[in-house]
Amino acid sequence: xxxxxxxxxxxxxxxxxxxxxxxxxxxxxxxxxxxxxxxxxxxxxxxxxxxxxxxxxxxxxxxxxxxxxxxxxxxxxxxxxxxxxxxxxxxxxxxxxxxxxxxxxxxxxxxxxxxxxxxxxxxxxxxxxxxxxxxxxxxxxxxxxxxxxxxxxxxxxxxxxxxxxxxxxxxxxxxxxxxxxxxxxxxxxxxxxxxxxxxxxxxxxxxxxxxxxxxxxxxxxxxxxxxxxxxxxxxxxxxxxxxxxxxxxxxxxxxxxxxxxxxxxxxxxxxxxxxxxxxxxxxxxxxxxxxxxxxxxxxxxxxxxxxxxxxxxxxxxxxxxxxxxxxxxxxxxxxxxxxxxxxxxxxxxxxxxxxxxxxxxxxxxxxxxxxxxxxxxxxxxxxxxxxxxxxxxxxxxxxxxxxxxxxxxxxx
Length: 412
Description:
Low-confidence stretches: 4-26, 146-153
Number of helices: 2
Radius of gyration: 24 Å
Oligomer: single chain
Helix content: under 10%
Distance between the termini: 29 Å
Number of domains: 1
CATH topology: Porin
CATH class: Mainly Beta
Number of strands: 21
Structural class: mainly beta
Strand content: over 45%
């Protein structure tokens, strides 16, 4: 632990001393038009509730309390890309990011995460078509989502793999259509969470009509198939469809909006009583009052998967506001406030409260502050703070979590 702290403090002193500003390097490696950007970052983070625990004594006598810790991370990375410019028929973007997490107290939680992503972009038909093929492989130990992290091992080992292919074609100046497809695999490593390992196949299409210079209409359809790896007495596999009709409006360079309404359904193969048909919406508003300020308001309602054993889906309603502000030349900040409501239509067993069956309902609130200082083109310091709070009628699902981190990154 002393060794880790010593290394981190040395890097902080390096910046404080002004040595960073004395170095002059343009921060770019090029081989012809191919750009190569290696990077390396170090991060010190404090989290006061590593496992998203509640803080209470349950009626059945179980005691649960938050467990804090400091985490030190080394984060090597590499980006290789060839930008596809107008007239080109080919471009690519390849990325690797590693994260070596070292806990000060919870040594059994140490892990080296790997995130590999690649995409290839092809054009043709005189610039009227666009094809993107790509994939991602992610090895991690973390919750699937903080909204229901305590329903599974909150730091479960898992691998995510995804391949995708998208095709766009400009039918005319005002019409664009295309096809979307993806295959996603989520593989949990331990027995307690293996029931959630699954494959998801998505196929879809869209049509965009620009019927005025500032207004367009967009129709999207997707079909999703979910197959779970583990065979159980019930068949949790499902098929689902989503239809979304959106209007996009950009009256000025300062403001644009997207309003969408639609329908989503999910049909389960073995538990038809949990089939769901739901109204959905999507709203995005972007306001740019100055070149240094951007404000984004977004809200959506959508059908999501659930990690509960006896409930397969949840309805998510989300509202978030993001304010981006640039200060002077080298400083910028971002403030984010988010609210989510998760509702479950089926009775579930609350085994921390005397094995009572009830309808679960969660209200999740988070706030975050991100502050960035670009010391040089190739050297960046970043400070992050976040506060998360989940309020639920399932006592074991309630938690409060705060984190503070300082990160220093070199990118060439």
